[in-house]
Amino acid sequence: MEDWETMLKAYNQVVDPTYKFDPEIPPTQGYRLNEDGAQPYYAKLSPGKGRGLFASRDIQKGEIVHDGNKSDVVFPDGLSWKRYMFALPRTMACDQAEWTFTQKFKEGGPMRVVSSLNIAILMNEGNTVKDVNVQPEDGNGKPSEYSAVFYAMRDIKKDEEILMDYADYDTDYAAAGIGHQVEQTKMEAVKTYVHQAAMGWGMIFRHVGSTLGLGS
C-alpha cells in the first residue's frame, strides 16, 4: 500500500496537483467502476507472470470489466512523465517504466503516455489468442484501439485470470515524447524499455536529468 501511495503523491506533486484520487477505494483494491463500487477483479500472483488480475466473481460476456477512463492517468506530455519517474525511488520507477504504455484516444489524435496508479495496471497478456478474454471496444461492440473500456469477450469464471492482448494498443514512445524511434515490434519495445530500466537505470537517470536540466 505504501508504494502505491508514494506513486499517487508523486503524481500530485510533479504532474497535476489538482488530480483527485478516490479516497474510498485504495489503489490495492483498484478504483470505483460504478455505483456498486470497485471493478470485478483483484490482484494476486500469476504463475509464470508475476502479479496479475483475477475475476472476483463470475463475469458475463459483454460486461464491462475495466474502464481506463476512470482508472488511468494520462500525462500531459513526455516531459511530465519524465519528471514523475525522476520523483520516484529507483526500484519503484522500474515498475512504473514497465507499467507505462502509449495510446491514441481518437483517429489522427496525438499519441499519449498513459499509466494506472492502482492494481488495474497489473493486467497480463494472454499467452495465446484463445487465452485473451477482454478487449477494448467502442460503444457499438466493436474492437477499438482508441477505447479505454474493456469488455468481456466471453463468460469469465470467478478466480479466472483477466487477460488482454498488448497488441490492442500501438507502442510508440518516440511519438509520445518519452523515447527514441526504433524498428521494433510492440513487445520488443516494451522488453527493451523495461530492460533499460532494470539494468541501466543510471543511463535513464542521466537522460532524464539532462532533459530537465538537473545535471551536466
Automatic annotation (TrEMBL):
Domain of life, per lineage: Eukaryota
Domain SET: 39-167
Pfam families, sorted: SET
Descriptive protein name: SET domain-containing protein
Taxonomy of the source species: Eukaryota, Sar, Stramenopiles, Ochrophyta, Bacillariophyta
